[in-house]
Design brief:
With 456 residues, the chain is mainly alpha-helical. 80% of the residues lie in helices and 0% in strands. The protein is globular and about 65 Å long.
Length: 456
């Protein structure tokens, strides 16, 4: 009998199928999460108008970020105690309960409570999911899944705003908060089932719970949210920034915040990049609704345009990454200039009396998305690539450091800009001028990227 081609053992073939199903399920979970991010940005001004909570923008941002910070640094320690599948099974229902509570809330206080409850679970889910991706999938599938995230966000940039705009306008922001939950639960269930087959995490020596830096992050970001016009509140917010940075220095690899060269510089760069972009993301829908008087459908168009810009350029840069350090610096420099240009357009859009304000705002946010796409994917790729000379940072540690830098910078910038907009909305006059200053500051922050890129 002629020997046929060698076949993989049944157990190995089964694991490959499970890995493929897990990768697809993870991409579906990411798609749902991406669409939900668009939904949250769309419904925030609608919720604030309905619940008379326009002065709570900063508090909403700070409270949810603080809740995430309480649990996000605990992910590695939790995984040293329980398998990822079990943690996901415990945490997912908490996210659902938080969404239901916010959707049914008659007051802003209850709405905020639901968001905090969901954020507490989401913080741990971020690090648990990342570790599951790194440890449970073979390297080839892991790279394919990470590459697929750019495509997922491209789809989300088209589907997410459409769903958010339609749901908010047709069924209301309350139903919009829960209508997607069945799909979310189905995708999570597949991930949990496959992780039980593939999970190779070892619950050996228990890692220390990072309670002190987690508490400092939560307390610091809460203090930042209290920024106001009085000297006392300004000093309190400044102290909060110092506390957040001190906690970040303990969580991130050593010397990250000291302008270190190499991959530590990439961690700092991703933080500055996300601060410049997500600081604007936190308020662009608010300025469109509260300053330009746009409705839910317009907000969907605005957020979708920016998302498409980021996703398309992210896919291009993922397909054709920067070949060397010089090419990376040039790409980041271009991206920084584009980001700053987008911020300038958005600043011009909110100046009182400027013609074509809405067109300027949409164009500026789209351009900002293009600038983010030019920088973001290449920075992640260079950070996750093994360096020629070992720098003491493992792949998993680097991945978590990049995520933490992104989230910390997003929280700081988003809370500061949301708090500033909350104060601006209560100003008797010149609100547009003050809002333009906020966008101008974010544009200047983007211009810090090229010198950071040269150090990496």
């Amino acid at each position: 009998m002629t020997a046929g081609a060698p076949t993989a053992p049944p157990q190995q073939a089964t694991r490959r199928r499970s890995a493929a199903v897990l990768a697809v399920a993870l991409l579906l979970v990411e798609l749902v999460a991406a669409c939900q991010s668009y939904l949250t940005s769309t419904i925030t001004p609608l919720m604030a108008q309905d619940l008379d909570a326009r002065d709570g923008y900063g508090l909403l941002m700070a409270a949810t970020q603080a809740a995430m910070f309480l649990t996000m640094p605990l992910g590695a320690a939790l995984l040293s105690r329980w398998p990822a599948a079990r943690l996901l099974a415990w945490l997912t229902p908490v996210v659902v309960a938080g969404g239901v509570l916010s959707a049914a809330s008659p007051t802003f206080t209850l709405f905020l409570s639901g968001r905090v409850l969901a954020a507490l679970a989401a913080g741990a889910l971020m690090t648990v999911s990342l570790s599951a991706l790194a440890t449970s999938l073979p390297p080839a599938w892991r790279r394919l899944t990470l590459a697929g995230y750019a495509l997922v966000w491209l789809v989300a940039s088209l589907v997410g705003p459409v769903y958010a705009g339609w749901a908010s306008a047709v069924i209301g922001w309350r139903w919009a908060l829960v209508a997607y939950l069945p799909l979310f639960l189905a995708a999570r269930a597949v991930v949990i089932l496959r992780l039980r087959e593939l999970d190779r995490a070892e619950q050996g020596a228990r890692e220390r719970l990072a309670l002190v830096p987690a508490t400092l992050l939560a307390a610091g970001i809460t203090a930042v949210s209290l920024a106001g016009t009085s000297w006392a509140r300004t000093l309190l917010a400044a102290a909060g920034v110092v506390v957040v940075l001190a906690a970040a220095a303990r969580i991130l690899p050593d010397d990250t915040l000291r302008l270190a060269r190499g991959r530590r510089g990439l961690i700092l760069l991703i933080g500055v990049l996300c601060g410049a972009y997500f600081g604007a993301h936190a308020v662009v829908a608010i300025t469109a609704h509260d300053l330009l008087g746009r409705d839910a459908g317009s907000l969907a168009v605005l957020l979708g345009a920016g998302g498409v810009g980021w996703a398309v350029l992210g896919m291009v840069c993922g397909r054709w990454p920067a070949r060397d350090a010089g090419a990376y610096v040039r790409r980041v420099t271009l991206g920084a200039l584009v980001l700053a240009g987008g911020a300038a357009l958005m600043a011009a859009a909110v100046v009182p009396g400027v013609p074509a304000a809405w067109l300027l705002l949409v164009t500026g946010w789209t351009v900002s998305g293009v600038g983010m796409g030019l920088c973001y994917v290449d920075t992640l790729n260079r950070g996750l690539d093994a360096p020629p000379v070992p720098d003491g940072i493992g792949t998993s540690q680097m991945a978590q450091a990049l995520v933490m830098a992104e989230v910390i910078a997003t929280a700081l910038a988003g809370t500061l800009t949301a708090s500033a907009l909350a104060w601006i909305m209560g100003a008797p006059a010149d609100r547009g001028v003050y809002a333009a200053v906020v966008y101008g500051i974010l544009g200047l922050l983007a211009l810090a990227l090229p010198p950071l890129a040269r150090r990496t």
